[in-house]
């Protein structure tokens, strides 16, 4: 990856920008592509998430050339030098990366409210009390007079209970 | 003819899990010998005597480490 270092050295002090992905740097053999991402723009978990999605499609290696920077190296698994395939692969990785960044940001911004809902669902007594209320209503109905006057033997005064009759 | 140099991989500990490296070393033990050196910031793995019938062994090994690292991180975060 000597050529990567040489080419990226042209702009060593470049401030992180949203178009960092345009700075894709190809190495000499045409089978690999490498680019450096700024963690301020692309959180580490998003980079790892995108890389995870590509493990079955290409060889990946992550390096940390500097603090808050992650270098991603993609290498074709099959075939020889194919710049078109490499460019397509890098583009797809960039798209996946943006997708992961969005998911990360949404998860981050909605994390508190999701935790709140989960806590409320697990620890509130509202559901339990409604079940108790239903059971209480059923008990009340059973205690009312039976309109059809169907007697249950063990509820007849003086009758033996099933337990008593069996024992 | 000069001996081919053994591939060496430097895994940054801020990106890769040490346990994942060890897991990969065990998984690939039959294909090469591995020298692992763990420092505060990185894990250096030197592959020796790679199996001649397995091309891109170092790349496969690195992918395995990456996969295991992400899987472990997600399990630690509570993902199934």
Question: Brief overview, please?
Answer:
The complex is a heterodimer of chains A (167) and B (80). Chain A has helices at 2-8, 44-53, 83-123, 126-143, 162-166; strands at 25-26, 32-38, 58-63, 69-76. With 167 residues, chain A is α+β, with helices and mostly antiparallel strands.
Task: Characterise the protein shown here.
The complex is a heterodimer of chains A (167) and B (80). With 167 residues, chain A is α+β, with helices and mostly antiparallel strands. Chain A has a domain of 109 residues: 2-Layer Sandwich (Alpha-Beta Plaits), CATH 3.30.70. In chain A, 49% of the residues lie in helices and 14% in strands. Chain A has five helices and four strands; from the N terminus they run αββαββααα. Chain A has a four-stranded antiparallel beta sheet, with helices on both faces. By secondary structure, chain B is an alpha+beta fold. In chain B, α1 packs across α2. The mean pLDDT of chain B is 90. Chains A and B meet through α2 and β3 of A and β1 and α2 of B.
């Amino acid at each position: 990856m000597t050529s990567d270092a040489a080419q990226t050295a042209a702009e060593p002090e470049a401030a992180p920008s949203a178009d960092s992905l345009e700075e894709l740097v190809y190495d000499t053999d045409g089978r690999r592509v490498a680019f450096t991402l700024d963690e301020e723009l692309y959180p580490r978990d998003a980079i790892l998430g995108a890389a995870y999605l590509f493990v079955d499609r290409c060889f990946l290696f992550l390096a940390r050339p500097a603090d808050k920077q992650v270098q991603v190296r993609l290498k074709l698994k099959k075939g020889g030098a194919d710049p078109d395939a490499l460019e397509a692969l890098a583009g797809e990785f960039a798209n996946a990366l943006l997708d992961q960044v969005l998911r990360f940001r949404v998860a981050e911004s909605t994390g508190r409210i999701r935790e709140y809902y989960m806590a409320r669902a697990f620890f509130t007594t509202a559901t339990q009390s409604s079940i108790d209320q239903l059971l209480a209503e059923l008990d009340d109905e059973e205690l009312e007079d039976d309109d059809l006057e169907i007697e249950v033997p063990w509820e007849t005064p003086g009758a033996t209970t099933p337990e008593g009759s069996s024992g | 003819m000069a001996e081919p140099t053994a591939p060496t991989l430097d895994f940054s500990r801020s990106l890769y899990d040490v346990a994942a490296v060890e897991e990969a070393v065990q998984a690939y033990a039959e294909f090469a010998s591995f020298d692992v050196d763990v420092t505060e910031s990185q894990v250096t793995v030197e592959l020796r005597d790679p199996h001649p019938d397995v091309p891109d062994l170092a790349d496969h090994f690195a992918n395995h480490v990456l996969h295991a690292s992400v899987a472990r991180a997600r399990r630690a975060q509570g993902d199934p």
